[in-house]
Amino acid sequence: MSGRFPLKARECLGSPARKRAYNELHFAETAPRYDLATRAMSLGRDAAWKRRLVEALPEDPSPLCVDLACGTGDVSFLLAERYPHGSVIGVDISPQMLSIGRKRNRYGNVRFTRCDMCVLPFPDASVDVLTGAYALRNAPLLGEALAEARRVLRPGGTAAFLDFAKPPSSSCRPPRYWLLRGWGGLWGLLLHGNLEIHGYIAESLIRFPDREGLRLRLREAGFTAASSRRFFLGILELVVLRRGPIPCAGSIIP
Question: How confident is the model at residue 245 (pLDDT cuts 50, 70, 90)?
């Protein structure tokens, strides 16, 4: 154990303030080996999933793209390649992640800024494309993050989110939890000497909506689903959305 990260995820994710503070410490600890960890835990597939996310986005000559929870910049850089005449802003809560992203950046149309995804520093309806790889699950308050995403996205704009998926069937959840907890814990131990570091993935899903619940939350927030795709035997899912009107109470479309 490193001694720098004594917190246990399960004890810190019950309130928005504690979750935000936990994630600041968590991603400060993981930043130096984050890219290695994502490759290892995905068996080398993480980069392909992120490419699929960006490939699913619409054609646009010069969009403003915002990449939520951008980490060290993988998706931000893919957006820069997809939209060479556009602008890309990667946002993240972790200064350590952003520092690595800035060092990796070789694109003139990418910049990074620190902020909470629940309080985005962009005007209403100013963003054409919004992305997030492993983003929404880390929001201190999911509802606030979705409201902010919709606020900054222009009408008809596109949002795409890749994240771990919680199965709707309650009988499938315990095996999925222990699989993720064990696999993440192993890599946390190997890379950081700390089972808690990547065991966080399994813990964060406990309070996150399942697939059906997430779709309901997205519709309630004013997004309409355009497409979805699952990866890694359904452990992860990519959803592509459009900003639409916020439905009236009782008018949620199944």
Answer: confident
